[in-house]
What does this fold into?
Amino acid sequence: MPTLDKDYWETRYQQGEAQWDMGSASTALIHYCQQLDKKDLAILIPGCGNGHEAAALCAMGFTNITIIDIAQSPIDNFKANNPSLLETGCVKLICGNFFTHTQTYDLIIEQTFFCALPPSMRPPYAAHMHQILKPGAKLMGLLFNFPLTEAGPPFGGSEEEYRQYFEPLFAIKQLEKCYNSIKPREGRELFFILQKAA
Ligand SMILES: C[S@@+](CC[C@H](N)C(=O)[O-])C[C@H]1O[C@@H](n2cnc3c(N)ncnc32)[C@H](O)[C@@H]1O
It folds into this structure.
C-alpha cells in the first residue's frame, strides 16, 4: 500500500488522477441536507477534495461550512471555481490534517474520506469524529459496501465492520443500502447517520 500522506494526495491531484471526483455534489448527501431547516449549523466536510458538496450547500443557503483537506490543490481549485461563494463567507477553507483539527461541529459530512484512509485509521476516525462533534450532533454520509482488500484507496468494508467502530460511540440512526447513489456507485454504498449523545 502506498503511504497515504499529504504528498500522495497532492501528487494525485497534480497529475490529474482524482478519479473519485464526481464533478458535482453527491445526490444522497444533498437530499439529506435539503430537509435541514437550520441554515447556520456548523458543518464540516473533511477530506473535501474539490468541495462540490460545500458549493452546493452554500447555494442552498447554509452559512457556516468548513472544508478541510490535507492537500493544497483541491483547496486552491475550490477557490478558483467558486469566487462568488467565497465572497459570501459561507465557507471556511483549511488545508490541514483532519486528525489534528479540533474545532467542534453540529454536522459532519462523510464523502469518500473514510475509504481513502488506511484501514488502520478507522478506529481513530471514529474517535476523532466523536471528539469534534458537539453533544447531540450528527455524522452522516456514505460508506462503501464492498469487501475490504489491500487494493486501495478506495478501501471497502461492510455494515458489520462499520458497526464495530461506531456502535460503542454513537447512536446509529441509519446504516443501510443507499437508494440514490450515482450510477457508477449503485449497489456499492451505504447511507448512514450517526448521532453523538446529547
Ligand atoms: C478520495 S478523495 C475524496 C475527495 C472528496 N471527498 C470527493 O468525494 O471528491 C480523499 C480526500 O481526502 C484527503 N485526505 C486524505 N487524508 C486526509 C487527512 N488526514 N486530513 C484531511 N484530508 C485528507 C485527500 O487529500 C483527498 O482529497
User: Anything to note?
Assistant: Residues 9, 20-21, 46-50, 68-71, 74, 97-99, 111-113, 116 surround S-adenosylmethionine (CB under 6 Å). The chain has one domain: 6-11+24-195. The longest strand covers residues 133-144. Helices lie at 6-14, 27-34, 52-59, 72-81, 83-88, 122-132, 159-166.
